Every structure is written in structure tokens, then in C-alpha cells.
Amino acid sequence: MWETIGSWLLEHGIPILIVIVLSYVGYRIAKPIMHRFVARFVQIRGKGRRAKEELAKRSQTLSGILTSTLGVIIAFIALFMILSELGVDIGPLLAGAGVLGIAIGFGAQNIIKDILNGLFILLEDQYNKGDVAKIAGIAGLVEDVNLRRTVLRDLDGVVHSIPNGQITTASNYTRDWARVNLDVPVAYGEDLDRVMAVINRVGQELAQDDYFGKFIKSPPKALRVNNFGDSGIEIKILGDTKPMKQWEVTGELRKRLKETFDKEGIEIPWPHVKLYFGQPDKSLNP
Which terminus of the chain is more solvent-facing, meaning fewer CB atoms within 10 Å of its CB: N or C? Predict the structure, then answer.
């Protein structure tokens, strides 16, 4: 009995072990090579057009998907080699797998739709891991993306897994550059030219700040009188920032505008109601 087991191990066990070890080592070697190849390819394609941060996110997304696909392919090849070594006829298995694939294809059309849509998302570079995007009506940080689904984490920390087949519109908030887009209300009695000059001064000071200056591409400045509101006049402020930094810069701009308006005596209005009782009836007075 032991001689039979030893003979089997020498004849089949060692080749099976070699297949497993070579598959594992091959995957471990191919993984960093694939990552470097994808990073180089993305860098060449995007050189001069995309920021380094954008290229890094693109590279991370593509390399993750390609290495996962490569791992599945290596696992299937190793499995069939092991079955062949065990004496299993893999011909019928391959034929059966083809028939099973067709049957699954008819019964899993949604999965096929997810994969096809995911392929176009990746090829068209609609968004990558690390972007902030609004997808299928949900806004959040893209934590993962593959051929079948996209994972978002919103501002409340909730994780949303969205099948790619349900994505018809994807809005990327952090592609190449971002923008400060702010409406600031002031009282109707204020001198608008003076108010705009103060806003532009604050924007310039923010752009020259040691910390916030490196996030700003063009200083925030007053663009126009945007609206006559119920309580005040709204002034549109625009400025360009680096991706992912528009919210931090906008928050600091609001803070500095409030402090400066208080110092300059510029009124920020709040909702109020003016009561009018009409003209008094003089016939009632003695």
C-alpha cells in the first residue's frame, strides 16, 4: 500500500506540486511586471495632458483589474493541468464548460451587461479609483471599480455597490482640475464695486497663502452680479483649483470673506420681513 502511495506521489504528486508552485510564483512575478507595464503605458498615453495624480489613479485602477484577470486565467490553467495529471479527461469538461457558458449567458444577461458597460467605463476612462464622482444618482469617493461593479463611499461613510449595467450617467468631480463655484449674498444697500474689489482682494490673499496657495490654479474672483434675491444681491465667485481641493478651498474662502466683510462693514443679509400697514384713515381721527 505504501509503495503504491509512494509511486503515485512520485509519478503524479510531484508534477501537481510543481504546477501549483509555478502558478503561484508566476503570478507573484507577473503582478509587479503588469503593474509597471500599465504604469508606463498610462504615463506615455497621458504625458503632457494629465496630472501625475490622475495618471497614478488610472494606473492603479487598470493594473488592479488586469492582475485580477491574470490571476483567474492562471488558476484555470493550473486547475486543468492538475485534472489532466489526475487522469481526468478534460476534453468533455472543456466542451461542457462551453455549453454551460452559453446557458449562463442566456440566464445572466444582467451580468454580461455589467461587464460590457464596465469595459467601456475603463476604456473611456470615465472615472478611476480615488476619484470623487456622482454615479447612478449617488455621490462619493470611488473606492473600487472593476468590470462588474463600482464601489462608492459617500460623505456619511456608507458604502454603495453599483452594478455597472445600471450606470447611464457618471459625473466626475475630480478630473484634471476642479472649481470654486460660490454665490455670496450682500445687502441691497452695499456699493457693489467696492464689494467686488474686496472679494477679489480676499481671493488673491488666499492664492498667496503658504498652505492654500499650492491648491489654487487661478485665484477666486467676483464674476458678476448673479441674482436679485429676496434679502440681498448674490455675487458669483469662480476660481480653479487642483482636483479634490475645491471643497477645502471653498470653505476657507467663506471663512475669510465673513471675517473681511465684518471688518469692512459689509452686510451679509438674512431673511427678514417688512410689514406695511397702509395709510391711516384720517376720517377716524377727531
Answer: C
Tell me, yes or no, whether 164 and 200 share the same domain: no
Residue 201: CATH number of its domain: 3.30.70.100
> Would 195 be classed as within a structural domain?
yes
Neighbour order of strands in the sheet with 132-135? 159-163, 149-153, 138-145, 132-135, 170-172
Per-residue pLDDT of the chain (286 residues; tens, 9 = 90+): 556 666 666 666 777 788 788 888 887 887 787 777 777 766 665 555 555 666 666 677 777 777 777 787 888 788 777 777 777 666 665 555 555 555 555 555 677 788 888 888 887 888 888 899 999 889 999 998 888 889 999 989 999 999 998 898 899 998 888 999 999 999 999 999 999 999 999 999 999 999 999 999 999 999 999 999 888 999 999 999 999 899 999 999 999 999 999 999 999 987 766 666 666 655 555 5
Say if 117 falls within a structural domain. Answer: no
- Amino acid identity, residue 161? S
Instruction: Check which CATH number belongs to the domain holding 164 and give it.
Output: 2.30.30.60
**Residues 124, 130, 136, 139, Cα dihedral to 10°:** -140
